[in-house]
Amino acid sequence: MEPTTPYRKLFLHDKDNRVQNLYYDIEIKTIFIRTKLQNVKKKFWKYAKFLAKVYIEIIQPRMLEFGCIRDNAYCDWQRAKRKSYTNNSSEKKNEEIRMSSIYHEADDEYEEMVLESQLYDENIRLVQDKIKEINNHQKDIMYYKKCAHCETMKNVTTAECSLKHKLCYDCIHDKTECPVCDEDMGLFHCDICYRYKKELVDTGCKNKHQTCKVCLVKIIRKNNLCPFCRDTCNKVPPSVVPIYVEGTHHTVEEMEQPYSDGRGRYMSYSR
User: Which parts of the chain sit beneath pLDDT 70?
Assistant: First the structure.
């Protein structure tokens, strides 16, 4: 059996199928050149602007015109129908049949215009969705660069090797050596978060256990006990930033502490 070709929607005012080929043949997620993405977006934007102009200047006025013709034909038909009921003559009956045919013909023309209007709306919506997809992809690749190891376009970070290779997250995660030049990057393993960090600090216990700065801040805020020997951490956490409650000037610790209301009663901010 021959493979069936997927259905490709036809676009309005697209004689050479340029918009159709642009819509179906170009994979937006595979383009990482910003100028090329911008050029594709401009073509879609011009086409959507053209459709909107035709819709406003031609389709909408014709819809209103055919709608008025249909409404007037319907009123004439109902008027002729009442006259044929009151005066049961062949002349009035023929007039009713003639007005009925005029109304149904006007109604068919109006329904055709409604379908054409819906076709314009659908085309504009499809193009706008494609433009939105391009905008989102442009935001994603704003800081994309080519990874020196896997050679894919991704968000990259600078390795700690002497050559400063640009590596993506998959190539540099949990590695102590640069995957390109095999140079030791001088990273240390934190036994709390199980990640390699540039620097470890003492927890302040008597056994001089070490963790990374992020884990030490969390430990001291939680219970100020070393997770290895359960000794008190006497060291002040580096660069501890107080956490303020939204909409107030009080920190979380202040909100949890009771305060006096001046009448001998102790209350809490959190209540």
Answer: 1-5, 234-271
